[in-house]
C-alpha cells in the first residue's frame, strides 16, 4: 500500500466548498426545526462557514444561493469573507421559490416565466463578476407531477434554447454547471433527470458547460462511481454536490449512509485525474442539517471527504493493476478493501497538527465556545432558511 | 365476466373518506404554492369536502387532523358538516409539528416529549367522543436520520408502552389505527417502517387495534396487494390511505401513477371480503394537490377508486378459479386483464344518473362555478396548510 | 378523442419482431422447466414464430441469436422462413456463454478474449449479409461482481476500440445497435449500464450506430418514456426490446406488469415520430416464457403492443396541447387517461377481421391444434434453450 | 471505546456455518462457469469446507442441501466430517428443482405436488435425526409470475397447513426455520416475501418455529438492521443467511457491497443479545462464487463476519447511551463510526496466532497448495452444482 506521507501533497490540494445555506435552517415538508444561533444574514452564514475552514483548513470557499444570499454590495461581501479567511465560490441560481415558476422555469411553456428565469441567470452572471466566481450552477426543479402535464420533448428543446441564451453570456473564465436530479420536487418527470440528459445538453452548448453530480440524485442502486468515471472520461465532470442518502435525496452528511460508496467515488476521482486542478472538478457539499448541529455537521462532512480521499489515495494501484490483469477477482478487491479498512485518522491528525491545525477539528470546535457565543449573540431577527 | 348490473349494490356500499387537509395548501420542502379560494377555516375545508360528495355521492365523511382542525365546539362543527351533507370521520393525530417532537413523540427518549405525545392522543380520543368518530389514526414521524442516533430496540419498547396507555382509554366502539411508513421525514430509520412492525404492535394491544396501509409508504417494488391480502387474512386491515407514487411518498392522485396496481389492490380487497362493512376497512384518501386544483383533484381521486373497484368487481371469479386450478397461467391472467381493460366509465355514468348524480362529476363541478365563487369570496385571512 | 378509423393505417405499419429464443426453454438460475413441443432446431423455432404472424399479422420477422441459431446454409434458412410467411430480422450476437468470456468480451483485459469477441461480431456481419438483416444488436454481459475487479475506465476505452473495429466493417445498409443494461449477470458494475453510456459510445462511432432500449434494463423508478423521448430527440433510438418487469430484468410479457407505463412509452414513440418508418426504430420482443405457454405468450405480447399503440394513437393531441399550454394539470392528464381507458379491443377485433385475420388471435391459435400437434410430433432430440 | 482484549471471548463464541453448495459451481441464468478442482461429491464439498475452518477456526459446521447432498449413509458422512474437523449443520430442503414444483410446492394448488413437498420435508427431518442437525431451513421458490396466476390468499392458507404438518413432526430439539424472499424466481408474487409473512406463519406454528433472515432478500433501501432488532425483540430470529447485494439477490461475499450495513446488522445482533448462545441465532453463509475462487471466497466471508463482529463489539455502549439520552445526534453517530473505522485486522491477526491459527488465513490457504492439489486430483466425474 502507498505510504501516507506520499499522499499529503495531493490531500493538501483537496478543497471542499461549503454551501451558505447549510448554516440556515432546513427541514422536510413536515417541519423545519429552528436552532439557537442560526444566522440571520449572509454575513453570519459566511462567519459560520469560516469556522469550518478555520478548524479543517480544507474548506476555503463558500457557495452562494441567489436570491437567498442577495446583498446590495457584493464587493463588500467579498471583503467580509476575505476578512474571515474564506473566499466566495460558486453561484447557485434558484428558480423554484417564486410563484412564477409553479409550472417550470427554463423549460416553461409560459414565455413570461421562462423570460424571468433566463433573466435571473443573467443576473447571476453579473453577480459572479462581482464575486469573482467561476461557476454558475443550475439545478432546476422543473418537471411535472402527472403524465401528460407537460410535453416532455418540447420542454427539452425549450431547455436547450434557454441554456444557449445563458451560455452565450458566460465570461471566458466562467462555466455553466448543469445539475441533474432523478425526482423531487417533480414526482412524475424531471426535465434533467439523469447524467445522460445533462451531458447531452451541455455537450450541445460548448466546452465551458459541464455536469454537476449530486451524490443523492440517482435511482436506487445506481453505480455512481461509474458515472464519475464516464464523465471524467468524456471531459464533462464539472462539480460534485456531496451528501448521502438511504432512500431519496436525503441530503445527509456525506459518507454517513454508505462510506464504502464514498470511497469508491473518490477512488474513481483519483483514477480519472479528477484531483488534478487542471481537471476543474469542484468539490462541494450540499446537505441539510435538519436535526443535527450545523457547523459541526459541516466540519464532519469536510473531514469525511478528506479522510476518504486519503484512503482512496492509499490504494496500491500497481498491485491493483496486476491483480486486474490476472483476473484475480479476490486479489483485486482485496487491494481496494485494504485501503478502505486502513485507519487513516491518526495519520491525518498528525498531519493536521504539522500544518498548525487542530488534530481533532470536531473537538476543537466544540471547545472553542463559538456555538454558545452565537446562540447568545444572535437574538432577534429572522433566521435564515430556504425561504430567504 | 360479471355484468355491471350485478355489482352496483356493492359499489353503492363503497364510501371513500376525504381528508380535510387536502383542501388546504401543500407542497414540498422546496415550495408550497398557494391558490385562490383555499380555505381559511375548518368549516371552509368541510364546505369544499362536501362538494366532492355532492358530485360523486361516494365521499360521505371528512377526516380531521388535530391540531390543524382544532375548534372550540366540535358539536357545532358536526352540525356544520351535517348541514353540508357530510359527516365527520377519522381523527388523525399529529405529533410532528411541535418543536417538542424533534427527536420523537410516542417513542421519544425524553419523558416530557413522550408525555406530551400521549396526552395529545388522549385529547384526540376526547374529540372523537364529540365528533362521533370511530377511528384514531396514528402516523408517527418518529425515527432517526443517522445510525446510532437512537436505540432502535428501546424505541420499539417505548412505543409499545405508549400505545398501550392510549389503547387503554379507547371507548368500546373506538379503534386505534396504526399507520406505517418506509421513510420520511426520518432518513435512516423509521420507528414503524413496515406492515410487520405495525402488525406486531397492534396485535400486542388487542382486537380494536388495526393497521393502516398507505399505498405510498413502501419500498420500491413492494407487492402491496400481497400485504392487503395478508392483513385481511390476519384480521388487521383497518384502513387505507389511498394515493399514488412514482418514486417516494409522492402523494399523487390515487391511480395516477399505476392504475393496474390500484386494480390489483382493489381486487384483493374484494377477494378478502374487505368491501363487506363487517370487515371494518376504512377507505380514505391521503394526497397532496401541490400543483393541481384541489377539489377536482379530490373528485378525480374518488372516481378513480370507484371506477377501479367496479373493474375489480367485474372479475369473473369462477373463470379465474378454474384457470388457477388448471395452472393455466395465461388464462388466469387474461381473466384479470379482461376486467381491467373493460371501459366501465359509460356504465358508471348511467348508474350515477340513475341515482340523481351527475354522469360526469368532473364536468359538473367545473360547470357549477363553485371554484370561481370561493376564489372570489375567500379574500383575506390565512390560507390553511400543513402548519395550521 | 381521435377515431379508431383514423389510426388504422399507422397501426398497419407497426411490425413487431419476435425473437427465435422465445420459443425455446428458458428459466432462472434455479431451474429451467421444459415443455412438450419445444423446438429442437432453428427451423422449428421459425415455424413457431410464423404462427404468431399467422394469427396476428403483426410479427413479420424473426430475430436470430448467434451462435444459438447458427446453421450451415443461411440462404436455405431464409427460404424456410419465407415459406412460412416470415422474414429473418436482427442478428443478436452472444458473447456470454463461452468460457473465454468469463471476465469480459469486447471489454476484456485479455487480448485473446477480446479478439474472439470481435471476430464473433465480424462473423455476425457476414451472416447478416446472408440473411439480409439490417441490424447487428450487441448486448454485453461484460462487467464485474466486485469493486476493484476491473478498471472501469480502461474497460470503457477498450469497448470503444472494439466497437470501432466492428463498426468499420458495417455495410452501408447495416446498423450497429448497442443495448444497455443496469445489472445482471454482473452484480457490481456493468460496462454499458445506462442509456447515457450507450449514447456516448454510439455517438462516437457514427450515424449508423444507435441505441437499443430494453424496457426491463433500468433502475427501479426510472422514467423510461423520458429516455424514449430523449433518444428520439437525439436521433439515436434504434430499437426496443420489449418485455416487462416488477423487480429486476424479469422478462415478463410486455405490458403485463405495468400497462400504463407501456402506454406512456408508446405515446412518446408516437409523439417523437418513432412510428414513422423513416425513424428506423425496430420494435422487438425479448422475453422469457418460463412458466407460461410460449407461442400464446408471444401472441399475447404482440397484441399487447398493438393494443397499446392503438390507445397511444387515440390521444387527442390538440386537446392535450391546449391543456398543456394552459397549465391545466388535471385536464392534460385526463386527455391521456381517456385514451388509456378506452377499450380498443372490439375495434381491433373488427379491424383484424376486415383484414382476413382472426378477431381473437389467442382463441384462434388455441383452436388451431398447433400446440398439440407439435407436442405430439416433436419427440426426441434436444429441446432448444439458452445453451443452444 | 471498548478494548479488543475484552471482546475476544465473545468473538470465540461466534461460529459461522458454511453451505456445502458454495463449493460447487454456481452462476446466473446466462452461464455457469466451471472451475478446476470443483467437488464431485458431498464428501469433497465437506473437505473443502473443512479448509475454511482449518484456516479461520470460525466455521465449525457445514450446512447440507437435500437432495443435492443426499447420501446413502448419513452416519458415515457425519464421521467423514468429524474426521475433517467439522460437523454437519442445518438441513436445507429443496422444492424448486423438480418438474413437479413448477407451480408451487408447499403452497401448490395441486395436491400431488403439495404432498410431494411435504413428504420431502418429512424426509429432511429423518435425515436431521441421522446428521444430528437442529434446524430444518425452508426456503420456498413458490410464487407466481403474473397477476391472477395464483389465488394469493389460498396459497397463504395452504402454506400454513403444510407447515403445520411438518412442524408436528419436529423433534423436541429441532426447529423449523422459515426464510423469506422479496422476489426470484417468482417475478410477480412470492408466497413468503417479507419478514412479516414469515413471522406471522411461524408464530402460528409454535415456539420452535423461527425466521431466517437472508441479507439479500429485501426490497431496495430496506433497513435490515431494523428487522434484526424487531425479530430479536419478538424472539423469532432463528438464523442469518449472510451474503451481500448491490441490486437484487446477488449472493456476493458478505460485506463486499456495503460493509457499513454489515456493521449495523452485527451491532443490532450484539445489542439484542443475538451473540448469546441461548438466543439460538444461527449464523450462516449463503453465497454464490460465480467468478471468484470458492474456498478463498468462503474464507474471506468468514473473516468479514468475524472482523465486523469485532468492530460491533468495540462500540462504547455507555458513551452511545449517554449521547442518545442527550439527543446528541452527531455524538451518538460518532460513537458508532469510531468503532467502524477502527482497524481491527492487526488485533485479529495477533489473536488468531495466539490460538494457533494463521494470522492471515487468506495467505495461509494460498500458501497451502490445497487449491492446486484438488485441481490436479479431481479429474473426471461430474462437478457439483445446483443441479446436483
Automatic annotation (TrEMBL), chains A, B, C, D:
Keyword line: Isomerase, Manganese, Metal-binding
Task: Name any Gene Ontology BP term.
Answer: L-lyxose metabolic process
Q: Please give the SUPFAM superfamilies that the UniProt record associates with this protein.
A: Xylose isomerase-like
Gene3D superfamilies found in the cross-reference section: Divalent-metal-dependent TIM barrel enzymes
Residues in coiled coil? none
The Swiss-Prot or TrEMBL record annotates one GO molecular function as: metal ion binding
Q: Which InterPro entries match?
A: L-rhamnose_isomerase, Rhamnose_iso-rel, Xyl_isomerase-like_sf
Matching PANTHER family? L-RHAMNOSE ISOMERASE
Q: What is this protein called?
A: Xylose isomerase
Tell me which species this is from.
Answer: Isoptericola dokdonensis DS-3
Amino acid at each position: 500500500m502507498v505510504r501516507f506521507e506520499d499522499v499529503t501533497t495531493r490531500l493538501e490540494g483537496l478543497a471542499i466548498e461549503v454551501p451558505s445555506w447549510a448554516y440556515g435552517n432546513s427541514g422536510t415538508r413536515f417541519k423545519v426545526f429552528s436552532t439557537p444561533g442560526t444566522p440571520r444574514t449572509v454575513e453570519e452564514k459566511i462567519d459560520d462557514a469560516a469556522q469550518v475552514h478555520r478548524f479543517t483548513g480544507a474548506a476555503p470557499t463558500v457557495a452562494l444561493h441567489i436570491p437567498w444570499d442577495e446583498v446590495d454590495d457584493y464587493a463588500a461581501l467579498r471583503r467580509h469573507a476575505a476578512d474571515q479567511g474564506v473566499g466566495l465560490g460558486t453561484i447557485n441560481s434558484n428558480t423554484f421559490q417564486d410563484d412564477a415558476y409553479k409550472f417550470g422555469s427554463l423549460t416553461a411553456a409560459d414565455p413570461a416565466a421562462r423570460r424571468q428565469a433566463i433573466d435571473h441567470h443573467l443576473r447571476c452572471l453579473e453577480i459572479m463578476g462581482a464575486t469573482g466566481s467561476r461557476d454558475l450552477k443550475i439545478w432546476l426543479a422543473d418537471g411535472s407531477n402527472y403524465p401528460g402535464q407537460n410535453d416532455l420533448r418540447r420542454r427539452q428543446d425549450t431547455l436547450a434554447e434557454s441554456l444557449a441564451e445563458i451560455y452565450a453570456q458566460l465570461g471566458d473564465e466562467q462555466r455553466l454547471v448543469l445539475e441533474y436530479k432523478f425526482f423531487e420536487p417533480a414526482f412524475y418527470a424531471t426535465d434533467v433527470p439523469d447524467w445522460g440528459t445533462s451531458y447531452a445538453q451541455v455537450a450541445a452548448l460548448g466546452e465551458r458547460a459541464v455536469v454537476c453530480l449530486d451524490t443523492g440524485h440517482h435511482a436506487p442502486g445506481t453505480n455512481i462511481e461509474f458515472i464519475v468515471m464516464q464523465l471524467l472520461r468524456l471531459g464533462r465532470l464539472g462539480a460534485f454536490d456531496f451528501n448521502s442518502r438511504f432512500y431519496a435525496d436525503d441530503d445527509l452528511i456525506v459518507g454517513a449512509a454508505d462510506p464504502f460508496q464514498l470511497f469508491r467515488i473518490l477512488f474513481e476521482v483519483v483514477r480519472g485525474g479528477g484531483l488534478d486542478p487542471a481537471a476543474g472538478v469542484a468539490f462541494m457539499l450540499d446537505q441539510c442539517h435538519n436535526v443535527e448541529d450545523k457547523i459541526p455537521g459541516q466540519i464532519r462532512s469536510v473531514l469525511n471527504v478528506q479522510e476518504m480521499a486519503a484512503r482512496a489515495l492509499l490504494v496500491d494501484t500497481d498491485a491493483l493493476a496486476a491483480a486486474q490483469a490476472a483476473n484475480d477477482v479476490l486479489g483485486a478487491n482485496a487491494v481496494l478493501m485494504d485501503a478502505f479498512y486502513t485507519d487513516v485518522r491518526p495519520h491525518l491528525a498528525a498531519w493536521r497538527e504539522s500544518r498548525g491545525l487542530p488534530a481533532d477539528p470536531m473537538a476543537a470546535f466544540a471547545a472553542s465556545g463559538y456555538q454558545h457565543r452565537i446562540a447568545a449573540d444572535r437574538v432577534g431577527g429572522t433566521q435564515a432558511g430556504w425561504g430567504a
